Amino acid sequence: MSNFDLAAFRKAKFQERAQDVPLSGLTAAGFGGYEGEGDDAKPKPVVYRVRGLTAQELAKADQEADNSKVLLKVAEQLAGTESERAQGLLSGLGLGDDTPKALAKKLSHIQMAVVSPQLKIQDVVRIADAYPMDFLELSVHIYDLTGQGKVAQVKRKPSGKSQTSKPA
Fold first, then answer.
1. What number is the average pLDDT over the span 48-64?
2. Of 147, 76, 62, 146, which Cα lies nearest the Cα of 107?
3. pLDDT for the residue 104
4. Which pLDDT tens digit goes with each residue over 111-167?
5. 38 beta partners
6. In the chain, what percentage of residues exceed pLDDT 90?
7. Long-range CB contacts for residues 23-30, cutoff 8 Å, separation at least 24
8. Is residue 131 within 8 Å of residue 28, measured between CB atoms?
9. From CA 145, how far away is CA 141, in angstroms rounded?
10. What confidence tier does 45 reach under pLDDT thresholds 50, 70, 90?
């Protein structure tokens, strides 16, 4: 016997689950700027806002990873020196037809789930190449949020039959 309230589930509104993720590698490198001057200058924290993924996004990344389509399309669509730079990054990471599916999926997941700042795929590739632990940190938080699902906006039922205290 299930205690799942299907009627409440059908009425519920859902909201994305999101959180801020501080990135120590990008912070230490100074990509957030600095507070103070000279020897007293300290790097400002670099913080990305991420959200959980939907089932459709997970499936889309899976499908794109099969052929590394998302990476190859971006490289082909870029013009001039930007294209050469992207191709160089992709080659440097070994991204192409023989790209490990797990890496291609993770790149796609991070691009989809980072809310702020909005990243292009070449940005995600650069982070993965230059700051692999920040890349991993982003993915861990994204998968954690995805596993928790969206936040359900449901009315809570009172825990008891009668009110224990009188309203003020």
1. 90
2. 62
3. 84
4. 999 999 999 988 998 999 999 999 999 999 999 999 999 998 877 666 666 655 666
5. none
6. 48
7. 23/47, 23/48, 23/131, 23/134, 23/137, 23/138, 24/133, 24/134, 24/137, 25/130, 25/131, 25/133, 25/134, 26/127, 26/131, 26/134, 29/131
8. no
9. 6
10. very high
For tokens 């590739």, name the residue: 125
Provide the residue count of the chain: 168
Please report, as a single letter, which amino acid is at residue 93: L
